[in-house]
Write a structure and sequence with these properties.
174 residues, six-stranded parallel β-sheet, globular
Length: 174
């Protein structure tokens, strides 16, 4: 499940490369310890509009507006926030065919130090399946940057939200 990273790139650098390669130019973020290196990279890039938000459903709405304004939106979030955003994803993005790339720190899986994260960790893929939201997982031998590009292409072609789930082991450099 852990991805092979290109060269000496950190996991965050590889994801950031994928964001750039996909042409993502608008990102909202909700804080997460696993995203602590990626968020500043996004914030420092002059070609990306970065909007920190306090709740995930707020981010869904902001990204929908950005898409309608001609942007390629993505959201950086923790999987615990998926539950917060279900109504917005269903009644806005899915209903109106608005693509959104969700790059999700998948807490509550192998290696999770906080037991309270485990229930949502176990439910994340089931919730995405129930909502018919496609998702990608890091695969051994596949550059995470390529996964990000494939996920954006799927969101754009299918006109719906698509997720990339990044479990705790992903964030540990091999």
């Amino acid at each position: 499940m852990i991805s092979t990273l290109s060269g000496d790139m950190t996991p965050s650098e590889s994801i950031f490369k994928g964001i750039k390669d996909a042409g993502i130019d608008f990102i909202v973020s909700v804080p997460c310890v696993n995203l602590k290196e990626l968020i500043p990279m996004v914030d420092a890039d002059p070609d990306i509009i970065h909007v920190p938000v306090t709740r995930e459903e707020e981010g869904v709405g902001v990204c929908a507006g950005a898409f309608m304004g001609g942007k390629r939106p993505a959201m950086l979030m923790q999987n615990s926030g998926l539950g917060n955003s279900i109504n917005a994803l269903a009644s806005l993005n899915q209903l109106y065919g608005i693509p959104l790339l969700m790059i999700i720190s998948h807490r509550g899986v192998e290696g999770e130090p906080i037991v309270a994260q485990v229930p949502m960790g176990q439910l994340t893929s089931k919730l995405l399946d129930t909502m018919e939201i496609p998702y990608f997982l890091p695969q051994k031998g596949v550059d995470p940057a390529d996964i990000i590009v494939k996920a954006w292409n799927a969101a754009s072609e299918q006109k719906k939200p698509v997720a990339v789930l990044l479990p705790i082991p992903f964030w540990r450099k091999q």
